Amino acid sequence: MVGLHSVVGILVIAVNVVAALVGLTYYLRRRTPARPYLHLVALGQVVVVAQAAIGLLLLAGDFRATDQLHYLYGGVALAVILSPWKYAPPNARKRLLWFVGASTVAAALGARGYMTGS
């Protein structure tokens, strides 16, 4: 299960970096995101939620991270990917920027969490 947590951690970083870069490209070119991009953002959010769920299962099985910051990074990443759904403005362009920012921060927190996990 620890190995799965590591693999999903790499997916969190990779998918969210790609989602942030593609979203930033749409934003800078002033284009409306295509449907595949929306699925990519959703995939990035799903892998963060899956990572948190696996982490909770590991905690229930009495596996602990060596650094307590690992739990903070995971919890904040989960909050960050959910925040645009609540706080992003209705303007489509600004909303896109919120999701780009959330993906960027989730990828960064995933990387930090990965470094503190083992």
What's the gist of this structure?
This protein is an all-alpha fold and 118 residues long. The protein has helices spanning 2-28, 35-60, 69-87, 92-117.
What sequence of helices (H) and strands (E) makes up the elements?
A: HHHH
Please bin the fraction of helical residues.
Answer: over 70%
Please mark out the parts with pLDDT under 50 across 5 or more consecutive residues, or reply none: none
> How many domain regions?
1
- Percent strand: under 5%
**Biggest beta sheet summary:** none
Chain-averaged pLDDT: 95
Shape: elongated
Number of helices: 4
In words, what does this structure look like?
This protein is an all-alpha fold. The protein has one domain. Helices cover 83% and strands 0% of the residues. It is built from four helices and no strands. It is elongated and about 50 Å long. The chain starts with a helix and ends with a helix. The model has no long low-confidence stretch (mean pLDDT 95).
Keywords, please?
118 residues; 83% helix; mainly alpha; 4 helices
SSE topology sketch:
Blueprint: H1 2-28, H2 35-60, H3 69-87, H4 92-117
